[in-house]
Amino acid sequence: MVEPGDIAVVHYVGRFASGAESGEVFDTSDVDVALSEGVYQGHRDYRPLSFEVGADEIIPGIDAAVRTMDVGDERTVTVDPDEAYGDRSADSVVEVPRGELETRSGRDARPGRPVQSANGEIGWIIDVTEETVTVDFNHELAGERLEFELRLLEVREPAEDQQSTAT
User: Fold this and answer.
1) What is the three-class DSSP state of 61?
2) Which stretch of DSSP H or E encloses residue 99?
3) What are the residues facing 122 on neighbouring strands?
4) Those residues with Cβ within 8 angstroms of residue 90's Cβ, 6 or more apart along the chain or in another chain
5) Which of 34, 62, 58 is nearest to 46 (CA)?
6) Where in this chain does the record put each PPIase FKBP-type domain (predicted)?
7) pTM as predicted
8) Does 50 reside within a domain?
9) What value does the CA radius of gyration of the chain take, rounded to a whole number of Å?
């Protein structure tokens, strides 16, 4: 079993678990899956995900599932929003003066464009009027019930991981 502090190396496929997009792949670490599912992005480096178990480096639902696995295990887990990217929050959708945003960013405000808040949060413009811009700072998967196919490839102790990256 995987212990907190271990470095877990997994391949994953993330799918929507419910709603109109149910079964649709939104992310994967496997290039073959990305190509076959039509979600391949050329700028991305597809490779297994490595993370320290118990260190809040990955969503809680995946962290918890990996703790119950052995190397070579494959498992599909369904993760509710509270164990993934949280619920959508109306407080995370803000309206800002258009002129202020365009001056600060140096770009025209257009729906779909990313913006960064003063404290570093990334949001997406969802609406633009003559006077205001509405920005959604919720994670794009907030409120979604998700399904992950996980394959545990390797488990290393943290000291092993540091040695392998030092060489």
Assistant:
1) helix
2) helix 98-105
3) 116
4) none
5) 34
6) 5-97
7) 0.82
8) yes
9) 19
Mean pLDDT over 79-107 rounds to 94
Length of the chain: 167
- The Cα-based distances of 14 to 51, 77, 82, 92, 167 in angstroms read 16, 10, 16, 24, 32
Residues 80 and 148 in one domain: yes
Q: How far apart are CA 135 and CA 116, in angstroms?
A: 10
- Full residue range of the structural domain in which residue 54 is found: 7-86+141-159
The Cβ of residue 69 has, within 10 Å, a number of other Cβ atoms equal to 19
For residues 63 and 122, membership in a common domain is answered with: no
User: Cβ neighbours of residue 67 under 8 Å, at least 6 residues apart?
Assistant: 1, 2, 3, 4, 53, 54
Q: How far is CA 70 from CA 1, 14, 67, 80, 143, in A?
A: 5, 20, 8, 23, 30
For the chain, report the end-to-end CA distance as a whole number of angstroms.
28
Contact assessment for residue 89 and residue 142, using Cβ atoms and an 8 Å cutoff = yes
Q: Is residue 103 part of a domain?
A: yes
Q: DSSP secondary structure string, 104-142?
A: HHSS---TT-EEE-TTS-EEEEEEE-SSEEEEE-S-TTT
